[in-house]
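Section 5.1 Outputs to date
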Amino acid sequence: MMLGIDRLLSEPSLQRRLHGLRVALLAHPASVTAELEHSLDALFAHTPLGVASAFGPQHGLRGDKQDNMIESRDEIDPLHGIPVFSLYGTTRRLTAEMLGTFDVCVVDLQDVGCRIYTFLTTLCYVLEDCAAAGKSVWVLDRPNPAGRPVEGLALRAGFESFVGVAAIPMRHGLTLGEAARWYREHRALDLDLEVIPMEGYDPNSAPGYGWCPTLTWVNPSPNLATLNAARCYAGTVLLEGTTLSEGRGTTRPLEVLGAPQLDVLQLLATMRELAAGWMDGCRLRPCYFEPTFHKHVGTRCAGLQIHTDHASYQHSVFKPFRLIALLLKALRKLHTGYTLWRDFPYEYVTGRLPIDTIAGSALLREWVDDSHATPADLEALLRTDEQQWCEQRRPWLLY
């Protein structure tokens, strides 16, 4: 399999189309070649292209920020002497100064296939801003480690934020190149967009199901440390809006979850009573952990680790959004007064609970809190959103 960046580096015909143009690169720490050279360094070392500037999304171009909502500053790249602009600092948008540094923005970001992962929003903003300014965009495509499956509620109008700007489900099943093609059509952008597809990529084949086993995993953000975490993310990220730990402050963030004094065996039994099928496709292992930072720091938590790295894993069956929704529903059934929902400005959104910002509507929270609502009620909403999205995305698939 060949990544988009490696095609650009190895195909003179692609490079010739950029000759004489000022190139900007939007990248992050996982923007590496098959030989693990950072894309910015590779473009300078192996091509004659005029790389004039670079952009870093959340967590930075080289990966300088650990936690969420920690902004990066503009700087000068110490190796190449070009300006590096932050798209997660004083602005999330391309300013006139930024737009004045390039003719073509080359986007090389490793995504994880989830609506709230902010690299998708940054891509959408770049497409809009470049369209308005008459700039071109090239997307160097990379795998979606979560693969093709679609799952989760679609974002509802009025719930747009930096963790969701379009009406797509939580787990969208697109590569970033495919998402760019869909977004240009969805927003009716007058944009010169070029997607450089991967070669030899099959998102449906075992054992990677979207992630090629020959690729080395490099964290696309500090707390997504494994392929297992990327597969779980469309569910476990919901816990950021709750008082439960999503494993930040441990060595397995977004794979382990829990809280102090949680009765895990009772919780699992209640989950099975409510909707055992939503637990299929993975292995759930009771465990204990003590976060060194973030929620419940220094406190022993009882919880679970979700394993998609076990022989029992079934890619088409595993539904992380349903799994975590079920866990929250079971916890609410067992402890009706449990303080479950956090309240703070998640991704700078005020006047709305974080869980609603993350889920893209109040529907999930209302379902969890409604003692009369059943898994069948949520399933009906989910299936409608998922089927509609599968039809809508079909024309823009490349693989």
